[in-house]
Write a structure and sequence with these properties.
With about 1100 residues, the chain is of the alpha/beta class. Helix content is about 35%, strand content about 20%. It has 36 helices and 40 strands. Helix 25 (about 700-710) packs across helix 26 and helix 31 (about 925-935) crosses helix 36. The longest helix is centred in the first third of the chain and has 18 residues, at about 260-275.
Length: about 1100
C-alpha cells in the first residue's frame, strides 16, 4: 500500500536532554524521521527541549518547538498546530511516556490526533511488565518467573514465592533500568524495591528470578502493516545477564548461536512483535539463554526505536528510524528501497561479513563516592563502536576507540602494562562486573589462569575468552621478537589481530614512527572495506568504510577537493552532542561550497556517523595511526580539528607534524591559548587582566604557590575538557586533601593554580573570525556566580544584569583576543567580572559546547559559517559582519545524572557533571527561566512549601528570598541557623530538626510529598553529609532544588512569572529575525 494521503501533518516528540540511558541515538533517529517524512510531503511538527541536537535546527522540521516536554506544553502545541497524527516511537522512553500521558488525559482524542507506528494498547502491552508476561505465556514463550508488585508487603510475598536470592528488581516505565538492581539478601531487597517503587511513574516493580550468568541476546526487528517481519540485526552481549545491555560490551552479529538456535530466536521475535501488536516500525526484543540447559526466555521488548536500533543501523547500514517513519505512514517493506544497494528492497534482511563491537564509556571519576559495580541499572554515558573482519580485530579497535588511555587488549597504555597484578585483585575484578573487567582478563591470562577458571569467575562465554586468549598469546609471541627479527607474515597477522602500531611499538620495544615505517616498507598496508548490508552480494553506492588488513582495498578515490572532519568519539561528560552538531554542520557547509567531506568518528549514536551526512564516512578510532592512514589514502586537502572537542585537538600537533594540513586556527595558536606563559604574555600585550596564577610541577611547589596567590584558589590540571580534577579550595587542609587527585588526572603535566574570584559574575562569549573580521555570536551570562563549570551553569542570553559599558569592554577584549590568536573559525572566551573589573579566565580557539544554543538564539548557523571561513571565505561574503542579540530571552539549563549515582556528592562546582542541556525561550525572562526548569525537570512549583537552608554568607539574601516566597503564598521551613536568621528579620518560618538532631527532618517531609522546593547552598567545596541527604531525597522524589543563592533568586522570579503571566508556545521559526543588530 502506498503512503496515506489522509494524514497532512505529523507531530514528532523528541527525547529531550541527554541523560544516562537516553543519549544522542534519539537525535539520530528523530533527525532521520524528520527527513523521511518531509521527503514524503508531510508537514512535520517537532517538539524537543534540547537545543544541542541537529534535529532542533529550523530546517529539519516545518515547525520546531523548543519547549518543555510536558503534557501541558504539548497540549498547547497540539491546539495551535492541529496535527493529523503523532509518531511516539522515535524519541526514546521520554516520547513514549509523554505520548501515553497525552492519550490517557484524553488530549489526543479531544484534538483528533491519531497515534501511528505503535498504538497505545501495544505500547502498554510492551511496557507493562505484567501484561507483557501474560502475552508471552499466551504465545507459548518462556519468561523468567516473576511477580509484579505495587507495595513493600506484596514484594516480600513475591520474594517468598520465588524462593532463593539473588532476585532482580525492574521498575515499570523507567529509563535505562533506572531504580532497578540485583538483591543478594533481604536487606538489599527492601532497599532496591523501595527505591524502585518510588522511581516508577506507575509505582510498580517486577520482582524476577535472577538469571545471573545466562547469555543475553537482542534482536532488532521490523514489521509493516502487511505483517512482513524482518530481523535487521542480532546482537550478543559479551557480558552475561546481570549487566544492563547499555553497559555491556555487545557484538553483532550474534557469535555463539547455532543456526538452529538463531532460527528459534528469530521465530520467537516475530511472534512477540505480532502478539504485542506493534503494527509498523522497529522493536528491540531481549532474550536470555541458559548456557547449561539451553532454556530460552524472553526478557523484555521496547516497542520503539531504541539505543540498540542506532547500533544496529550503524552496524548494518540499514536506516531503521527512516524506514520506521515510512512504514508508519502506510508503506510496506517491499515498497521501499535499500539506500545502500539501491537495488534490494527493505524487506531483504541485511547480511554482514564483518564483526561489530560496541563498548560503553563510563565517567565514574566524576562521581568518586558512587558504586562503580555494573548492575541492571544503566550507568554509562556514551559508547564507541568498531568494525573488523574478525572479533579480535573489532574488539581491539573498539578498546582504542574509547579514548580512556587503553590502546587495546594489552600492548602498553592504561590497563595494558606488563607488571604482574596480584591474584586477589584479579579475582575481585573478574568476579564483579565493572568497567575494567576486560583488561583484567588479560592480567588473569598473564597470571596463568585457564579459560575455564575465568569462565567460572565471569560467566563470559568461553568462545569470547578463547578469542581473547589468542590475542594474549600473540602478544606473548611478539614480545620475544624485535621489529627487525619479525617476519612479514607475522607482522601482517598481528595487524589482522587488531594490534595498532603503538601497541606493536611497546611490545617490540621500538617506537611508533619506526614500526609504521617498517610496516609500510614491507607492504603491510591498511585496506578499507565497504559496509554494504548484503555481504558484497550487490554493489554499494554509499561510501561507508572500515579498515582491515586484507588483500582487497575498496576505496575509490575521487579527484575532487576533499576536507576531512574529525568527530568527537564516544560521548562523555564534558564532550557530548554539541560537538557532533558542529561536525555535521561543517559537513553540510563544505558540501554547499563544492568540497567532498570525509567524516571520521567512532560513535554509533550520532548524526555525524549517518551514511548520508558526509560524502564519505570512516567508522574508525580517532588515533594518529588511523586518521593519518585515511587522510593519505583519500588524498585529503585539509582537516578540521576544532569541531570535535578535545579529542581531535589532542591530535592536532602530531597530525601537522606528519604532513596534514590543519585548516582554520593553527595548532600553534591553540597551544598558545593552553600554555600559561604564552597566554599571559598575550593578555599583557593587549592590556587584559587575569586572576593571579601559578603553574606547579609537583605537590610541594603547588602548596607554596597557593599560599603566594592566597586562598581561595582554583586548582586544575592542564589540557583537559570538562573540568576533570578541578577544585575550589578555601583552606590549606582542603588543599592537601585534593592536590594528589589534580596531578593524577594528567600524569606528567603541570597543575594550574588560580586565585578564585568569589562572587564574580561569569560570562561566556562565542565569537567567529575569518582572520580579518571578528563577530560576536552571543554573550551568555551565568546565573550562578563564578566557580560553577560553564558546562553546568545556567545561562541567560542576552546578559541580564551587566551594564552596556561593561558589555562594550567585553566586546573590545574579545575582538583583541581573536586578532592576537589569529583565530580563523570559532573561539570561546570565559570572562569574570568582579568589582566592575574584567578578568579573562580562559580562551578556547575552537567550537564550544554553547555554539548550538547561540545559533538557535540568534537564528544564524555559526558552525556552518565557521567551516566556510576555514576554507578561506570571508564573513563579508557570507553576509555576517554585525553582532546580533536576541530581543527575546534564551535560558540554558543543565541536566544532571545524580539519581544514577546514589552516594555521590550533589554539588555544582568547577568539575563538569551534567550530561545534557535544555533551552527556555520567551519574551519574558521569568517565563523563559521557568520553561528551562520545566524542561530540565522537575519544574518550579507555584504553591506549597519551601525548605530553605543556606550558608552564612548567603543569609542576608535568603531573607529577601523568603519574604518574596511568603508574599507568593508559600510556607517556608528551615533548620536552626537559617530559621533564626529569618525569624530575626520578621519572616514567618516553620523550624525543622537537623538530620542528626531529631525528627521530623527535611528528608521526612520530602519523602511525604510535603516539600515542593529545596533551596540549599553548601558551606564548603563538598556538601556536608546531612546536606547531601536532603539533596539526594529531593532528586529521588523529583522535588525542584536550587543549590546556589543566585539560582534561588532566578527561581523566585520564574515562580512569580508563572503566577502572573500567560505561558505560551512559539516555534523557533517565528523567532527568526527577532534580533537587534549592533
Amino acid at each position: 500500500m502506498p503512503k496515506r494521503t489522509d494524514l497532512k501533518s505529523i507531530l514528532i516528540i523528541g527525547a529531550g536532554p541527554i541523560v544516562i540511558g537516553q543519549a544522542c541515538e534519539f537525535d539520530y533517529s528523530g533527525t532521520q524521521a524528520c527527513k523521511a517524512l518531509k521527503e514524503e510531503g508531510y508537514r512535520v511538527i517537532l517538539v524537543n527541549s534540547n537545543p544541542a541536537t541537529i534535529m532542533t535546527d529550523p530546517e529539519f522540521a516545518d515547525v520546531t518547538y523548543i519547549e518543555p516536554l510536558t503534557v501541558e506544553m504539548v497540549e498547547k502545541i497540539i491546539a495551535a498546530e492541529r496535527p493529523s497524527a503523532l509518531l511516539p516511537t522515535l524519541g526514546g522512553q521520554t516520547a513514549l511516556n509523554l505520548s501515553m500521558e497525552l492519550h490517557k488525559a484524553g488530549i489526543l482524542e479531544k484534538y483528533g490526533v491519531e497515534m501511528i507506528g505503535a498504538k497505545p494498547d501495544a505500547i502498554n502491552k510492551g511496557e507493562d511488565r505484567e501484561l507483557f508476561k501474560q502475552a508471552m505465556v499466551k504465545i507459548g514463550l518462556d519468561v523468567a518467573k516473576s511477580r509484579t508488585v505495587k507495595s513493600m508487603d506484596e514484594a516480600r510475598t513475591a520474594a517468598e514465592v520465588l524462593g532463593a536470592f539473588p532476585l532482580i528488581i525492574r521498575p515499570s516505565f523507567t529509563l535505562g533500568g533506572s531504580g532497578g538492581g540485583i538483591a543478594y539478601n533481604k536487606e538489599e531487597f527492601e532497599r532496591i524495591v523501595a527505591n524502585g517503587l518510588d522511581l516508577s511513574p506507575v509505582h510498580e516493580v517486577l520482582v524476577e528470578e535472577c538469571l545471573l550468568g545466562w547469555k543475553e541476546y537482542e534482536m532488532e526487528v521490523m514489521r509493516d502493516h502487511n505483517d512482513q517481519c524482518v530481523v535487521i540485526c542480532s546482537i550478543e552481549n559479551f557480558d552475561p545477564m546481570g549487566v544492563h545491555t547499555g553497559d555491556s560490551i555487545t557484538v553483532a552479529p550474534a557469535m555463539t548461536l547455532t543456526d538452529k538456535e538463531f532460527q528459534v530466536m528469530r521465530d520467537a521475535s516475530f511472534a512477540v512483535i505480532r502478539e504485542i501488536g506493534v503494527e509498523t516500525g522497529g522493536s528491540n526484543i531481549q532474550f536470555s539463554v541458559d548456557p547449561v540447559g539451553g532454556r530460552m526466555v524472553v526478557i523484555e521488548m521496547n516497542p520503539r526505536v531504541s539505543r540498540s536500533s542506532a547500533l544496529a543501523s550503524k552496524a548494518t547500514g540499514f536506516p531503521i528510524a527512516k524506514i520506521a517513519a515510512k512504514l508508519a505512514v502506510g508503506y510496506a517493506l517491499d515498497e521501499l528501497r535499500n539506500d545502500i544497494t539501491r537495488l534490494t528492497p527493505a524487506s531483504f534482511e541485511p547480511t554482514i561479513d564483518y564483526v561489530v563491537t560496541k563498548i560503553p564509556r563510563f565517567t565514574f571519576e566524576k562521581f568518586p563516592d558512587a558504586d562503580a559495580t555494573l548492575t541492571s541499572a544503566m550507568k554509562s554515558v556514551g559508547e564507541a563502536m568498531a568494525i573488523g573482519r574478525t572479533f579480535k580485530e573489532s574488539i581491539q579497535k573498539c578498546l582504542r576507540s574509547l579514548e580512556t588511555g587503553a590502546r587495546g587488549f594489552g600492548g602498553g597504555g592504561k590497563y595494558g602494562g606488563d607488571e604482574p597484578v596480584e591474584e586477589k585483585l584479579i579475582n575481585a575484578k573478574l568476579g564483579t562486573p565493572n568497567a575494567e573487567r576486560i583488561y583484567y582478563i588479560r592480567h588473569a591470562f598473564k597470571a596463568g589462569y585457564t579459560v575455564e577458571r575465568i569462565f567460572e569467575l565471569t560467566k563470559i562465554d568461553p568462545w569470547f575468552l578463547h578469542q581473547l586468549r589468542e590475542i594474549f598469546e600473540m602478544e606473548q609471541e611478539l614480545s620475544q621478537r624485535t621489529i627487525a627479527s619479525l617476519d612479514t607474515a607475522a607482522l601482517r597477522r598481528a595487524k589482522q589481530f587488531g594490534f595498532s602500531d603503538v601497541q606493536l611499538a611497546h611490545i617490540l620495544k621500538s617506537d611508533f614512527a619506526t614500526v609504521r615505517a617498517a610496516r609500510k616498507a614491507r607492504g603491510v598496508e591498511t585496506t578499507y572495506r565497504l559496509v554494504d548490508t548484503c555481504a558484497a552480494e550487490f554493489e554499494a553506492f554509499t561510501p561507508y568504510y572500515y579498515s582491515s588488513y586484507g588483500d582487497e582495498n575498496e576505496i575509490v578515490p575521487s579527484g575532487n577537493k576533499k576536507i576531512m572532519i574529525l568527530g568527537g568519539g564516544p560521548n562523555r561528560i564534558g564532550q557530548g552532542i554539541e560537538f557532533d552538531y558542529c561536525c555535521v554542520h561543517a559537513s553540510f557547509a563544505l558540501r554547499e561550497i563544492g568540497y567532498e567531506t570525509v567524516m571520521v568518528n567512532s560513535n554509533p549514536e550520532t548524526v555525524s556517523t549517518d551514511y548520508d551526512t558526509s560524502d564519505r564516512l570512516y567508522f574508525e578510532p580517532l588515533t594518529l595511526e588511523d586518521v593519518l592512514e585515511i587522510y593519505r589514502q583519500e588524498k585529503c586537502d585539509g582537516a578540521i580539528v576544532q569541531f570535535g572537542g578535545q579529542t581531535p585537538l589532542n591530535l592536532a600537533a602530531a597530525l601537522k607534524a606528519n604532513g596534514v594540513t590543519i585548516i582554520g586556527t593553527s595548532p600553534e595558536s591553540i597551544e598558545v591559548a593552553e600554555d600559561r606563559k604564552l597566554f599571559a604574555a598575550i593578555l599583557h600585550k593587549i592590556g587584559l587582566k587575569q586572576p593571579a596564577n601559578r603553574t606547579a610541577l609537583n605537590e610541594t611547589e603547588a602548596l607554596t604557590f597557593a599560599q603566594e596567590v592566597g586562598f581561595p584558589v582554583l586548582l586544575r590540571p592542564s589540557f583537559v575538557l570538562g573540568g576533570r580534577g578541578m577544585f575550589i579550595v578555601y583552606t590549606e587542609d582542603e588543599f592537601r586533601a585534593v592536590i594528589r587527585q589534580a596531578f593524577d588526572v594528567m600524569p606528567g603535566k603541570p597543575v594550574l593554580i588560580d586565585k578564585f574570584l568569589e562572587d564574580a559574575i561569569e560570562l561566556d562569549v562565542d565569537c567567529i573570525s575569518d582572520g580579518e573580521t571578528s563577530v560576536i555570536g552571543g554573550m551568555l551570562e551565568h546565573i550562578e556566580y563564578a566557580g560553577v563549570h560553564s558546562g553546568d551553569a545556567s545561562m541567560v542570553m542576552p546578559p541580564h544584569t551587566l551594564s552596556p559599558d561593561m558589555l562594550a569592554t567585553v566586546r573590545t577584549a574579545t575582538h583583541a583576543l581573536a586578532r592576537e590568536l589569529s583565530v580563523v573559525g570559532l573561539m570561546n572566551v570565559q570572562f569574570a567580572i568582579k568589582d566592575h573589573e574584567l578578568y579573562v579566565l580562559e580562551v578556547n580557539p575552537r567550537a564550544s559546547r554553547t555554539v548550538p544554543f547561540v545559533a538557535k538564539a540568534i537564528g544564524v548557523p555559526l558552525a556552518k559559517l565557521a567551516a566556510k571561513v576555514m576554507t578561506g571565505m570571508k564573513l563579508k561574503d557570507l553576509g555576517f559582519t554585525r553582532e546580533q542579540t536576541p530581543k527575546h530571552w534564551c535560558v540554558k539549563e543543565s541536566v544532571f545524572p545524580f539519581v544514577r549515582f546514589p552516594g555521590a556528592a550533589i554539588v555544582l562546582g568547577p568539575e563538569m557533571r551534567s550530561t545534557g542541556e535544555v533551552m527556555g525561550l520567551d519574551a519574558d525572562l521569568g517565563v523563559a527561566f521557568a520553561k528551562a526548569q520545566a524542561a530540565a525537570k522537575p519544574g518550579l512549583p507555584t504553591s506549597g512549601n519551601v525548605f530553605l537552608s543556606v550558608k552564612d554568607a548567603d543569609k542576608p539574601r535568603a531573607v529577601d528570598i523568603a519574604r518574596q516566597l511568603e508574599a507568593l503564598g508559600f510556607t517556608v521551613y528551615s533548620t536552626s541557623g537559617t530559621a533564626a536568621a529569618l525569624a530575626a528579620q520578621g519572616v514567618k518560618v516553620k523550624p525543622l530538626s537537623k538530620i542528626a538532631e531529631g525528627r521530623p527532618t527535611a528528608v521526612d517531609l520530602i519523602k511525604n510529598g510535603e516539600i515542593q522546593m529545596v533551596i540549599n547552598t553548601p558551606g564548603g567545596m563538598i556538601p556536608r553529609r546531612d546536606e547531601n541527604a536532603i539533596r539526594a531525597a529531593a532528586y529521588a522524589h523529583s522535588v525542584c532544588i536550587m543549590t546556589t543563592i543566585t539560582g534561588a533568586l532566578a527561581a523566585v522570579q520564574g515562580i512569580r512569572a508563572l503566577r502572573e503571566k500567560p505561558v505560551g508556545v512559539k516555534p523557533i521559526q517565528q523567532y527568526r529575525g527577532n534580533v537587534n543588530v549592533l
